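Re: the 106-residue chain
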Amino acid sequence: MRYAAWICVVVAVAAFYSPRRDFDLLSAASIAALILFAIALPHVEKTPRPLKNYLRAGLGVAALALVLIAMPLLMGAELWLGLILWAGLSTALLAWVYFYERTEPR
């Protein structure tokens, strides 16, 4: 599991440099985001538990923002549906982490 993010980076780089594709900004930004997530994930897992769950939620919110807001915008789609979905899912995730940390023993 600890190498899953790096495997995603390798697959994305291989797809980016395939001979059938041209250079585009979305692919380069996606690879950069995957590299940042791959670097951040081991550091998040080394933190103590109350902070670890909040940092995991933060990474999840950032990943949701990339998928639900940034990708549709770069593809020319409307902003509102992705923004509403991102806000609702992010709020639910952060509320779940908050109440989970309040009720679970350490």
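The chain has four helices and no strands.
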